[in-house]
UniProtKB/TrEMBL annotation:
InterPro entries to which the protein is assigned, alphabetical: Leu-rich_rpt (IPR001611), Leu-rich_rpt_typical-subtyp (IPR003591), LRR_dom_sf (IPR032675), LRR_N_plant-typ (IPR013210)
Predominant location: membrane
Source species of the chain: Nyssa sinensis
Membrane topology category: Single-pass membrane protein; Single-pass type I membrane protein
Keywords linked to the UniProt accession: Glycoprotein, Leucine-rich repeat, Membrane, Receptor, Repeat, Signal, Transmembrane, Transmembrane helix
Keyword Membrane: yes
Domain Leucine-rich repeat-containing N-terminal plant-type: 18-51
Pfam families assigned: LRR_1, LRRNT_2
Subcellular location: Cell membrane; Membrane
Listed GO CC annotations: plasma membrane
Gene Ontology biological process terms from the UniProt entry: defense response; response to other organism
Name of the protein this chain belongs to: Leucine-rich repeat-containing N-terminal plant-type domain-containing protein
Entry keyword Membrane: yes
């Protein structure tokens, strides 16, 4: 005998329904985005999800999938503007709130969001909030994801953030942190589960090299580009204090100087390394050969003066046995590197972009470079290269940019 059991999913709580209706009253864009917000069961409304058992609203996802920068008329259809009413604080079971890429312009981040203590995900990027970030967001002890980037916000003190003990992802790009001072890292160091840290263009300055006991053991991504760090390349970046799982280092457009330590070769999971537009000196250590997962490597616009390493160490540890088998982009233009181009450049089988412009390289172009069939962009201009330009470059199927100007080559394609 066949027995059919049909589970009844709970309708949304009346108090949660009323809270969302009150929120809807203050939001513009009703004729499009929120047209489904009618009827008694708010669990069926667009952007709303409920607990199947209790009927409590646990998720509000009203992000605009077409950001203004995408330059599409669909942005206006999806865009919401207005204000966030305090009625949302009645949704005590809410775990996910995403209002990103809308235009709630000119208002501060509502302080009452700090009362949603079950919140795990909060995305308020590019919404147009102004003013200071309310410290009572520190009450969100269950929060794992926080994004308040790309809007004119200011932070005066990061002490409140030390209470976000569960935080894994923090994005404060373009938020003004200049008033926090140089001790910003001491507060963030108290977030033991942090994996992604985005602090680009935040007005940060001072020392990040003298902290004695870093606790970023879970960190996989750190982006502190476009700030004002004027200091020697910090040793703790590569000596293991960032943890063994670091994948992305974004330090471009600062004032870092000093030499790259050989220990950067210990970051075996590193995929992206961007130290462009700084003042790094010396050369590139041969230990980068141990970075088998490296995809993007950018040291352009620094003060590098030595030659590229003739050999890369540790390549036998990569699965393929070839040097830097994952590398797609290599950019070291606008330095003062000298010497000949090493043969290993022609063994980078997945290389798409090669930028070696405006240096003092001499000698011939390695024949093997012309066999890299994934190349799309080659910049070798402004050097002292000589010999015959290889015809094989003209047969590369993906090549769209090729610059060998201002050299001493005998032939051109």
């Amino acid at each position: 005998m066949l027995v059919m059991v049909i589970a009844h999913l709970a309708d949304c709580l009346e108090s949660h329904h009323d809270a969302l209706i009150d929120f809807k009253i203050s939001i513009k864009g009703l004729e499009n985005r929120l047209s489904s917000w009618h009827g008694s069961n708010c669990c069926q409304w667009r952007g709303i999800a409920c607990d199947n058992t209790t009927g409590s609203v646990i998720r509000i996802d009203l992000h605009n999938p077409y950001p203004l920068s995408s330059n599409t008329p669909r942005y206006a259809f999806w865009n919401l503007s207005g204000e966030i009413r305090p009625s949302l604080q009645k949704l005590k079971s809410l775990t996910h709130l995403d209002l990103s890429f809308n235009t709630l312009q000119g208002i501060p981040i509502p302080g009452f969001l700090g009362s949603l203590k079950n919140l795990q995900y909060l995305n308020l990027t590019t919404v147009g909030f102004r003013g200071s970030i309310p410290p009572n967001l520190g009450n969100l002890s269950s929060l794992q994801y926080l994004n308040v980037s790309s809007q004119p916000l200011t932070v005066y003190n990061l002490q409140w953030m030390t209470s976000l003990a569960s935080l894994k992802h923090l994005d404060m790009n373009q938020v003004d942190l200049s008033l926090v001072g140089s001790n910003w890292i001491e507060f963030l160091n108290k977030l033991p589960f942090l994996t992604d840290l985005h602090l680009s263009n935040c007005g940060l300055f001072g020392s990040i090299s003298s902290l004695g006991s870093l606790n970023f053991t879970s960190l996989a991504l750190i982006d502190i580009s476009l700030n004002s760090f004027d200091l020697k390349f910090p040793d703790w970046i590569a000596n293991g204090k960032l943890g063994k799982n670091i994948e992305v280092l974004g330090f471009s457009d600062n004032k870092l100087h000093g030499k790259l330590p050989a220990s950067i070769g210990n970051m075996k999971f590193l995929t992206d390394f961007d130290l462009s537009s700084n003042g790094v000196e010396g050369g590139i250590p041969s230990s980068i050969g141990r970075l088998c997962s490296l995809i993007n490597f950018d040291l352009s616009s620094n003060n590098l003066t030595k030659s590229l390493p003739e050999l890369l160490e540790g390549t036998e540890n990569c699965v393929s046995g070839s040097p830097l088998p994952s590398l797609v982009s290599l950019r070291v233009s606008n330095n003062r590197l000298v010497g000949e181009l090493p043969d290993w450049l022609g063994q980078l089988e997945n290389l798409s972009e090669l930028g070696l412009n405006y240096k003092l390289f001499e000698g011939s172009i390695p024949y093997s470079l012309g066999t890299l069939r994934n190349l799309t962009s080659v910049g070798l201009g402004g050097n002292k290269l000589n010999g015959t330009l290889l015809e094989s470059f003209g047969q590369l199927p993906e090549l769209t940019f090729f610059d060998v100007s201002s050299n001493q080559l005998q032939e051109y394609l």
